[in-house]
Amino acid sequence: MPAAPSSSAVPSQSARWLRIGLAVAVVVALVLLGRRAGSAVPEFAADIAGLGALGPVVFVLGYAIATVAFIPGSLLTLAAGAVFGLLKGTIVVFAGATIGSTLAFLVSRYAARSLVARRLAGNQQFAAVDRAIAAQGRRIVFLLRLSPAFPFSVLNYALGLSRVTLRDYVLASVGMLPGTVLYVYYGKLAGDVAALAGGAQTPKGPAYYAVLILGLVATVVVTTIVTRTARRALREATETAAPVASRGAAVVKSEVAASSLTDVRSMHRLMLATLLTLALVSAPLPSQGFDHSAFDALLKQYVAKGMVDYDAFGAAPTFRTYLQSLARQDPARLSRDEQLAFWINAYNAYTIQLIVKHDERRSIRNINKTFFLKLKGPWAEPLARVGGKDYTLDDIEHVIIRPTYGEPRIHFALVCAAMGCPPLRDEAYTGARLEAQLEDQGTVFIIQSPTKNRVNAAYGVLHHSLIFEWYKEDFGGSIQGAARYMARWFPEGSAERRLLMSGEFSAVETEYDWTLNSQENSRRLSAAGTARPSRSQSPAPVAAVAPRT
Predict the structure, then answer these.
(1) Which of 174, 108, 181, 184 is nearest to 145 (CA)?
(2) CA-based angle 427:432:435, to the nearest 5?
(3) What Rg value do the Cα atoms of the chain yield, rounded?
(4) How many angstroms separate the CA atoms of 496 and 500, rounded?
(5) Beta bridge partners of 391
(6) Which residues contact 139 (CB under 8 A, 6 or more apart)?
(7) Distance (Å, rounded) from C-alpha 488 to C-alpha 442?
(8) What gap in Å lies between CA 229 and CA 235, rounded to an integer?
(9) For every residue of 128-188, which 3-state class applies, written as one string?
């Protein structure tokens, strides 16, 4: 009868599993943190592009640091193709990845290898795997580099815990080349890392599947090699063990065979569990939506109280980069709120681009007119490129947004570059905050813009923007329906809300100012002591027809 375990054994075992759990948690946290940090890659790539001859050196150093810090190398590799082209991009990525992976290997080797060695000393299975990797280190590392099942950053540290020699480890780095060339080539085709960071898909042609198949074959081969070599090491270890005197040689041989078979099966299960764990850790994070941070920064810097510095937008390289990222994004891949936020931002961004492109500073309605006759309205120019297709501003508003999303508040968010429009928000719309942002735009347009909308409850008058006439079908089909929609922004029980809900009021259209909503025009109007347009600036109301056409 075996002896009962001592009371101290249980706490020791618990402590061991606790340390293992903490170690796994730290690794997973570092991986996830590195993936979050990957959002800074587009800005890094843009800076590199402006460094000239120094750019490749800085990129190699940055790639090495990113590798040590668990920042995903795929986006940096794509960026290298966009910035340097195929040949130079492959060279700088391979250099940076080799330096970074070697640094990670050395950190792991000298920080934790001794602890692992002590643990392996009492476990034949793991010690056999360790010897197997040491015996065929160069071949195994090469195959691991080819395999997509083993995440690059985690593998660097994992191999540092093994007995692979530094020389074999570095030489086997050549296994990274097929994947490196493929992703650098994709980056070269994209030509814009901001689009890739925003979620644009990389192409999946024959080369992609060829590398994928090569990697999967490598996964099978490396698993087989490690298992067979470890089984051989286990057999050698058990056969050389001295048999206990009370047992016969046949019994010992039988137990050795059974032990080897059990160990091999355990090793297969271990390899399978490892593959599944690494696949989970290396899987992409849930979609965070399209990255509008570049546009957000521009709006914060160049929009004040709804007025726009168009000259600054036109001179900003990040504005052109943001438009390029819109051109490559497929909005259908986003969630519903992310899609709507995307299209609102696209409309506003391309409206700014329309003004910049035509260098117009008086009124958007001056664009595409000859001898004061409108030949093709500004909203009918196909300048907006999204997902590889060209759209007009009218397409975005009337063909995509209005019929698809059925959201009347978009009329408070789409800004047609005129003083009479709702003020341009000084931040980009996002799916996560879309509801709050649209609701706030309603407050700004309906409550805080008295030259556009106001309610005189004492006299029973609603002064309303022509937007509610032009788009009354989106607000219930009549001005009374629009008034009931507007009522939600007034306090419960207020005289204004009661009047709007009753429908018993006189409706007066406010004047719509088509003066460009530029900061320069705002200052000029303020200096003149008026921000109100003349009647001649207001277009005649046209029911059920887009006002921006």
Answers:
(1) 174
(2) 80
(3) 33
(4) 6
(5) 384
(6) 172, 225
(7) 10
(8) 10
(9) HHHHHHHHCHHHHHHHHHHCCCCCHHHHHHHHHCCCCCHHHHHHHHHHHHHHHHHHHHHHH
Report the pLDDT averaged over residues 465-487. Answer: 94
Give the list of residues 6+ apart from residue 135 with CB closer than 8 angstroms, or none: 229, 233
Is the CB of residue 145 less than 8 Å from the CB of residue 175? yes
396 has a pLDDT exceeding 50: yes
461-464 vs 506-509, strand pairing mode: parallel
According to DSSP, the residues that pair with 216 across neighbouring strands are none
Determine the pLDDT at residue 69: 77
Residue range 476-491: mean pLDDT, rounded:
94
Contact between 420 and 513 under an 8 Å Cβ cutoff? The reply is yes
Q: Residue 425 has which token pair? A: 């928000």
Other residues' Cβ atoms within 10 Å of the Cβ of residue 13 = 11
Percent of the chain with pLDDT over 90: 37
Nearest CA to 526 out of 304, 301, 298, 300 is that of 304
SS3 string, 34-94, reads HHHHHHHHHHHHHHHHCCHHHHHHHHHHHHHHHHHCCCCHHHHHHHHHHHHCHHHHHHHHH
Task: Give me the residues paired with residue 443 across strands.
Answer: none
pLDDT tens per residue, range 85-122: 778 888 998 999 899 889 888 888 887 666 555 554 55
Q: Which two tokens stand for residue 384?
A: 């907006």
Ranges 114-118, 144-148, 231-235, 294-298: which has the least confidence: 231-235
Q: Hey, what amino acid is at 33?
A: L
Question: Token pair of 311, please?
Answer: 């000259």
Do the beta carbons of residue 55 and residue 87 sit within 8 Å?
A: no
- 36 exposed, middle or buried (CB, 10 Å; 0-12, 13-18, 19+)? exposed
Give the 3-state secondary structure percentages of the chain, helix then strand then coil, rounded to 5.
65, 5, 30
What is the torsional sign of CA 318, 322, 325, 327? negative
pLDDT reading at 26 higher than 50: yes
Chain segment 509-536, per-residue pLDDT in tens: 999 999 999 999 888 888 876 544 433 3
Torsion of CA 345, 351, 357, 362, to 10 degrees: -140
| Cα separation, 48 vs 79, whole angstroms | 10
Q: Collect all residues with Cβ–Cβ distance below 8 Å to 183 and sequence separation of at least 6.
A: 74, 77, 78, 81, 93, 202
- Give the whole-angstrom CA distance, residue 547 versus residue 418: 12
Distance separating alpha carbons of residues 175 and 215, to the nearest angstrom: 10
Average confidence score pLDDT of the chain: 74
